[in-house]
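Model: You mentioned two targets. I'll fold them one after the other.
Researcher: Yes, keep them separate.
Model: Target one:
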Amino acid sequence: MPSVKLTSTVMGCVVALHLLTAIALVMVKTPVITIKPLEITPPIEIQLVSEVTTITEPVIAVAEVEPIKAPKPQSVSVPEAKPEPKKAVQPVVRKEKPKPQVDTKPATATTKIVESKPIIKQPIQSQESDALAQASALAADNERKILAEQTEKANQQTHAKAMREAQAAADTKAKADRETQAVSDAKAAQAARAKAEAATREKANQQAAAAASNTPVNFTATNANWASAPSFSFPARARLGARSGETFRVVLVLQVNKQGSIDNVSLAQSSGNAALDRDAQQQVLSGKFKPFTKNGVPVVGNVTLPISYAAP
């Protein structure tokens, strides 16, 4: 954008040119236009002479031309209009050839009448007016160029400012998008970590529960419930040496898995009859318990089961 000093200088030059133009127009003197009247050529008389007879004086037509009135003086400078000189009208003269007989009719001569018109040249502008007009046109052209340059520069600056603002807005939006994405990524990472930690804790709990469930837990016979009870009967081989009605009591320790099946049987207290003790261990294996639980989780249990036999 041009500086204020340059703009002031240009405007001062334009004002000075206009003042000089006005002063020159005032000082120029308007010339007085004088137009001289046209000179009128007097008519020409022509006589026809015949050798044989006397020819009467011919009739000559004379054209009278009125002088052109001078136009009113104008304010502009006009060069003096000079009328072109009027050419003399040359009449056409016909000579008659001599005849043997005298013609009594007078011969007449014809004359063409040509009307002459003055040629008036168009007025032209003076050199001073041309110079002033050129100076004014040059000043106006310079002023238009300066205004066009200022407008173009202002448009360029406006466009550049709009581009900068658009770029700043795009950068701000990109930054906000990056921050939003970073927050979203942080939340996703935190959720993934929390999920992984929960899965780890769950796995640890499962492992702990599995380890705890694999560790046998002691239960009493009152806590045991048969899913299918075994059939206990006094064995025939144990009847030898036994009196009728005699009671034998055997205490067994059973290891029950998570499904309720009996994996192992051990003798905790003998009945005094070895054959009866062995048969009791075999008979109990045909039964199945309901799974033992601890805190709602199936576990391996050790249950002490007393069995009483009566000899038949």
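Model: Target two:
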Amino acid sequence: MSFTDTAMDFRTPELDALASVVIPEQHFELRAEDARDSYFTDTSKLDAKQLVHDRFRTNPRALHDHLIGALDLRGTEELLDLGCGNGEILARIRPYLAAGHLTAFDIAPAALEAARQRLDGVATPCEFVEGTADDLSVFANDSFDRVMAVYMAHYVTDLDACFTEVRRVLRPGGRFVLATDRTDSMVEMWNVHFAALRDMNAPEMLFRATPKGRISLSNGTGQLTPYFASVERVDWQDQLQFGKADAFMAFYRSCNHCCASSKPGVDLSPAFFTDLEERVHARVQAAIDKVGYFALTKYTGHFICS
């Protein structure tokens, strides 16, 4: 069953039409090892993304507000955060678990260290465990009241193993909350990105959609229902509005140029990305000159599994 946060509605027929022609069916496929060895050797890109989302969002309810509602906390639960990253979300949730217990879990040592520093000194007991989300053998059966996976499941090598493990470590009556996007989320960014690539006659393999297409709001229910008796989909929206092109470009870089600079399998020179950024910047600036800002419409949400 799907429920929608109707407080903010940015969806328009024009955006739907744009998505139908812009978003490719084939998406990038990234691995947990890519995250560890390429994206999260430090957390600078994740830090930049979080700063932009907080600064330029127009939905008054932030990500952690939605997650707190989904987790349905009483304050004493034991919570496992799969792919905790820099610990930003965990730190925002922690006051709602002041008498609970937190376990931060990530494949990237740099991310775990950042999370450790962010939570350093809090009275709530915290553990920091390195590992992959498809192997939770370090934890006993029925170890956690809550498990969350926030925008990280598309990295997991074996999703079936991951969900089997989550079900195993989740206590009876517990909840697993998995956050992901719709595949047409932030279509405006993909539009200017692909337009710039076309102008450059870029390699065809770069014309792929977000790796979150692997497990998105549209296909996640079918992947989760074999493992959980109840799977509830909750949709919500936001729109990032940039009044300056340079502010958007910082976000674009933190997204690895829409994965073009992630690990595309081709050797792209620094000059390629200089050219790409100049073309994207020009298109974003044109939109700002026309309407006053450049918008990124987020179609996102989460699954509540029990």
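Researcher: Noted. Anything on target two?
Model: The radius of gyration is 19 Å.
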